[in-house]
Amino acid sequence: MAYLDTREAFATAAPVGASSIPAAFERSEWEVIVLAQRDDIASLRAPGWLARTFAALFGGNPDRRLASPRLEALRRLAVHAWHQGYAVPVSAMKGFKEVGFSTDQLELLLSSIAQGRTADRHGY
What is the CB-side half-sphere exposure of residue 91 using CA atoms within 13 A? Predict the structure, then answer.
């Protein structure tokens, strides 16, 4: 399968992965992607006063956001992808790229999660 490389004004078609930018994630980044499968969309919002009150009374941390802006952008995109497939919000993709991830990494993330979603659905 090939795609049109728009980075060079529609120069030529190049196979996916032919970029000079490495598309791999570090181990900790893969862990964030896998753990994001358990988070729901509500985890992307800051906890409300009720959640903070319950946490203060009964312990725990209602805030699932990560301290690292890079890993948090990765988590946000991964949560959307686990729940919505390729229909992730533009804002999540923009935040992902703003913290230094590449387009190749975006494609790798979305395709990996799509495969994981298919395997979950079919029980592989």
Answer: 2
CA 12 to CA 5: how far, in whole Å? Answer: 6
Report d(CA 93, CA 98) in Å as an integer: 9
Residue with tokens 């979305």: 110
Which residue ranges make up each domain of the chain?
A: 24-39+48-118
50 Cβ contact partners less than 8 Å away, ≥ 6 residues apart: none
Scanning the structure block, which residue is given the tokens 């990560």? 66
Q: In Å, how far are 54, 59, 84 from 43, measured between CA atoms?
A: 16, 18, 15
How far apart CA 124 and CA 113 sit, in angstroms, is 14
Give tens-digit pLDDT for 22-57: 568 999 999 999 999 999 888 888 778 887 787 778
* Residue 81: Cβ-neighbour burial (10 angstroms; 0-12, 13-18, 19+): buried
Q: What does the mean pLDDT of the chain come to?
A: 80
